[in-house]
Amino acid sequence: MSDISSGAAVKNNGYVTDFKGRASFFLTDFCGNLLFCIIGSYLLYFYTDVFGLPVTVTGILLLLTRILDAIDAPIWGSIVDHTNSKYGRSRPWFLWLAIPFAVSMWLTFTTPSFLSETGKIVYAVFTYLIAGIVYSGVQTAITSILPNLSSNHDERMILNTFRMAGGSVGAFISMTFTLPLVKLLGQGDDQLGFSLTVGMFGIVVVILLFFAFRHLREQNVERNESIPFKDSLKAIKNNWPWIILVSVNLIVWICISVRQGTVIFYAKYVLNNEDITALLNGILTITCLVSFLTMAFIVKFTKKFGAMILGAIMVIVSHVGMYLSGDSLALLILCWTIGAFGQGLICAMPFGMLADTVDYGEYSSGVRAAGLLTAIGSALCIKGGSGVGAFIPTYIMGSYGYEANAVQTAESLYGITMSFIWVPVVLSIFIAVPMMLYARFEAQERYIVRALQERAKA
Asked: How many Å apart are CA 380 and CA 369, to the nearest integer?
């Protein structure tokens, strides 16, 4: 087989990638998060406090563009399923989308100063939509390639750990160093600072995605066939583990977006310490990395559905604890760290579990629609969830009278607190409950893999 000659090996009726392949998979999500986490963490702040858009306008803009943008996820999934090249289905897109991804993200944070308020809105919508569409392609390629990197259950967990570790490192750099770099490079001009910072990150992303393209390999490239869209849909019908997982993952990304998007407001206006944002974001990404690295160990005791429930409970405990911490910064940081570990679990687990739902879809329908299933389960959830997660706090904060760069009233501070503390608590409850239904499907996974392997031999 072509993959074995390229450095892969067979183990336990599946494929185990070499270290260079695992490192390349690490780099894919590193690149995705290095740029995308700037949107998740700072775009709301950038639009309101730097670009000068009203908070209510910003919330509606983010919601509508994200919902519109999320529609492209199934399209990207179908495109990947129709891709038929000597490099595979997913891998070529790392090469083709690297430069468009970097440029579109740079344009999102490069805002002309001469625009009117209407012009600012039009520019923001256009650049944000383009960046989101391109990111969907990158995210679809990252997620859809996993089922085709290995059919070995344990190897998939290892690969997903590498991916999540890469994503965590990318997120750490993005969330921790973006604001300091903006201040350093902008020298008082935050608009210039954001443009230069994102441009620098973009150059790094292009180089590393080219590297990942070169060193990743997909299984059975020679047997790739285009899958018609209507046939791909068969893999969704009665695929209950996929339906449950997608529903939960959408809520996960709403929760993550709310937490990461409002922490700067909570730090700046409630804690009166904007500079602590970088510390909290740094703690978040480092703790998430620890969560990713220990994920496989945790799953041995909790199973995958149990790890999701555990993560949701930790987020709930975290936010209740932060509310009760009062003036104790140490207690707040401790509680934030607990929530960060939980966020790491609920963020990482669905990506590996999606590969299992691809197997289930093939087992029940005979169609292996990795592109469509993973695109909806990842890109659509991330972007749709991020859009809703950006809208919810802007609606709440706007309703309670928030004004950018102003002294906040008691009412507006309550709105910020409600957004940062209580919304994630409610969302986490809606993450934990459906995962209880996933348990019986998870118990069937190894049988399904064996059945598919027997089909392939027949």
From this structure: 16
